[in-house]
Amino acid sequence: MDITMTDERIVFAPVGRIDALTAESFGEELARGVRENAELLPYIDLSAVGYISSAGLRALLMAAKATELPIHVTGVSEELYDIFVMTGFTGVLVIEKAANANDMDILDIRTLDISGLEMISRDDLSCTYLVDAETIVKVYDRSVSLDHIRACKKKSEVSLRAGVPTCISYDVVDCGGCYGLLYERICDAVPLAEVMKADRDHIGSYASRVAGWIKTVNAVDADNTIFPPVRRTLRHMIPRLEEAGILSRSDVDRLINVVVNVPNSSCYIHGNITPTSVLVSKGGFIAADAISAGSGHPIFDLSSIAWYFKLLPQMGITSPAAPFTAKECEAFWDVFIEMYFGHAPASFTVKAEYQIMQFAAVRYLCAAVLAPELVQPGITNKVKRAALSMCDVVEPLVF
Questions:
Q1: Taking all residues of the chain, what is their mean pLDDT, rounded to a whole number?
Q2: Residue 80 domain-assigned?
Q3: Which end of the chain is more exposed for a tag (fewer CB within 10 A), N or C?
Q4: Phi and psi for 253 in degrees, rounded to 5?
């Protein structure tokens, strides 16, 4: 990569492809040059670059975080410009098309044939397939609307721009009667649960790091026109427990009373932070997607961790998705809660934990309606009794 400087700017001019093989060295050199010349306006000339992968986009993102100045990307071809638009990077960088690049209409939904693609994961509303070495597609059930999928893509774009570490989303595609969303495949990424299983002697270390990561994520200010208030979402979801015959009308009112007790907040809420939904790449944490992202009080994310490491073992619930022993879960939770609240007095931590567990129980009951295959027969009544008993004590949140 050629680097030239004037009195006002520093220009980086890579050549060829910026892909999984070249992105790391490109990103390191780029970020170092930006940091060491902080007074110069950074320009990246892509006129000699024919392809950029998600790894290359992450290198640009790393450079953007290394400076407070706007990064100008020049000489952008039609093909590269389409990628920048689809991934939302036009909101991160100042993109300048090459003189011979035309305006392209990329609004039409293209078709992707998924027959023959390898399925790599599955949940209640989607299947994920491997498209190529650097791309996956999450194909949604026919019941999931196109508007919802487009909203998920928008959440991913805005999350990335706001500094939330999440996978880059590319494009909405028609997969033959249902729709999918293309994401980058981070080749070295492994679910946190798998990393922790292979390193069980250091459960507490992971708990400490997860606590710090969640605090960083929740510190992001979320636009509630894009990220719906979680409190409002729960408020409208709980009545479905009566429709499903799980709760009576009066019990529904008791749960709603707990939810509306949470103060309004504009914190970024991931919505589903568990060791299976958080990926580890190069030692850092990345959210698999931003589908459940919303805005609200941090208690909504803390209840995700409480669900996994406190509620499930407390209720004697076992699951392939939660492969840790009760003792390991207890060790994780004790360190996590201590680190998240910064070694607060025991009286404070006990009260905070109680309030977090209220929401962990509410989440489990809502899952019994939204994804009944995720809950175990006979356990729902046990969780219901616990949730309702805690609902009898509704106090202002201590944090």
A1: 89
A2: yes
A3: C
A4: -60, -35
Is the domain of 301 the same as that of 245? Answer: yes
The CA-atom distances, in angstroms, between 3 and each of 6, 10, 43, 363 are 11, 7, 10, 53
The pTM (predicted TM-score) of the whole model is: 0.84
Question: Is 93 in contact with 60 (CB distance < 8 Å)?
Answer: yes
Domain boundary among 184, 213, 233: 184
Do 148 and 278 share a structural domain?
A: no
Domain final residue, candidates 184, 206, 227: 184
Summarize pLDDT for 129-170 with one digit per residue, the tens: 999 988 999 999 888 888 889 999 999 999 988 889 899 998
Is pLDDT of 70 > 60? Answer: yes
Where b means 16+ CB within 10 Å and e means fewer, 137-157 reads: bbbbeeebeeeebeebbebbb
379 class by beta-carbon count within 10 Å (0-12 exposed, 13-18 middle, 19+ buried): middle
Number of domains in the chain: 3
Position with higher pLDDT, 265 vs 317: 265
- Are 92 and 149 found together in one domain? no
- Regarding whether 194 and 287 lie in a shared domain, the answer is yes
Token pair belonging to 376: 């175990």
What tens digit of pLDDT does each residue of 264-286 get?
A: 999 999 998 989 889 999 889 99
